[in-house]
């Protein structure tokens, strides 16, 4: 117990936690009290240092970079999901695209995978404040831009230049029997021009079938589908260029001198080393206040006072 001007206070009150530690929650502080002075030195452990550095590290540059990475993640995930839904034929005319635009679908899948991987690497580099990882992220953004442009260019070129001739050649040379059957079943047609022109025989498609040829339906589908693909691809390009510029401008400002994880841990180790030295000196000074060990009464009768009438010789 200690007596002060405010009265008698206990050890818990004397070493009560400051207001900042109460706001930060349980911080497991190391308490150091210097005898002879009224100042109390509080040194907090790793959780306090990490919280403080974490809050100070979210600068405007870092927030802009995270927003940019999230946009890459959104349209990369959307592209990959649409490609996977097409591969698994979850919508009605997916089989037509798998057969007629197989190369475009493969490129869309690759572009979505690259963008998703790029966003994950960028987020990891931002969270860890790692400039080398962010440099890899910036390089992968250019690879993602290339894949997006390739998808847009191939789909636009196919839809804009002699699409009917390309479909006629593909039907005759490149489409397999299973591919033609998928197109016929999806578009409810038979043969290319007529049921007698290179048709894959099935229950609904035979020489006597009244179904129309697949040329008109396939041409209309390809026009709409390819236009949709290249429109989406070219609309992503400006946003992706903005993300590249943001990564180049903000990546160098994510970390600052002395706020990296290594610097924080070094400062923690130095603080804890100084704390250990001060605590050791404090314990040495307080040895005199330690409680004495328990001792038993002597078995000698000379010093026994419980025997009345005992007279020393």
UniProtKB/TrEMBL annotation:
GO terms for cellular component: membrane
InterPro entries xref list: Tetraspanin/Peripherin
Superkingdom, natural source: Eukaryota
One Pfam family matching this protein: Tetraspanin
Membrane topology: Multi-pass membrane protein
Keywords, ordered alphabetically: Membrane, Transmembrane, Transmembrane helix
Record field: transmembrane: 65-88, 104-128, 134-156, 228-249
Coiled-coil features, chain-numbered ranges: none
Main location (coarse class): membrane
Protein's cellular compartments: Membrane
Protein name: Tetraspanin Tsp2
Species of provenance: Amanita thiersii Skay4041
Phylogenetic classification of the source organism: Eukaryota, Fungi, Dikarya, Basidiomycota, Agaricomycotina
């Amino acid at each position: 117990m200690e007596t002060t001007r405010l009265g008698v206070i206990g050890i818990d009150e004397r070493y009560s936690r400051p207001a900042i530690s109460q706001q930060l929650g349980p911080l497991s502080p190391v308490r150091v009290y210097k005898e002879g002075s009224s100042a109390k030195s509080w040194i907090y452990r790793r959780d306090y240092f990490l919280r403080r550095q974490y809050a100070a590290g979210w600068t405007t540059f870092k927030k802009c970079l995270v927003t940019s990475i999230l946009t890459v993640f959104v349209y990369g995930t959307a592209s990959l999901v649409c490609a996977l839904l097409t591969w698994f034929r979850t919508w009605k005319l997916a089989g037509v695209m798998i057969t007629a635009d197989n190369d475009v679908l493969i490129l869309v899948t690759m572009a979505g995978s690259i963008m998703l991987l790029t966003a994950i690497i960028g987020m990891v580099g931002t969270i860890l404040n790692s400039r080398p990882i962010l440099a890899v992220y910036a390089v992968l953004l250019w690879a993602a831009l290339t894949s997006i442009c390739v998808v847009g260019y191939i789909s636009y070129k196919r839809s804009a230049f002699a699409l009917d001739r390309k479909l006629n050649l593909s039907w005759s040379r490149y489409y397999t029997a299973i591919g033609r059957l998928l197109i016929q079943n999806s578009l409810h047609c038979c043969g290319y021009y007529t049921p007698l022109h290179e048709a894959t025989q099935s229950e609904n498609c035979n020489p006597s079938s009244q179904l129309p040829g697949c040329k008109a339906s396939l041409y209309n589908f390809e026009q709409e589908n390819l236009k949709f693909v290249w429109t989406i691809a070219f609309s992503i390009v400006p946003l992706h260029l903005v993300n590249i510029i943001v990564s180049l401008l903000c990546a160098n400002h994510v970390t600052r001198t002395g706020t990296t994880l290594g610097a924080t841990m070094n400062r923690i180790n130095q603080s804890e080393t100084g704390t250990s030295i001060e605590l050791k000196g404090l314990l040495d000074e307080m040895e005199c206040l330690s409680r004495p060990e328990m001792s038993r009464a002597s078995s000698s009768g000379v010093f026994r006072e419980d025997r009345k009438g005992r007279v020393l010789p």
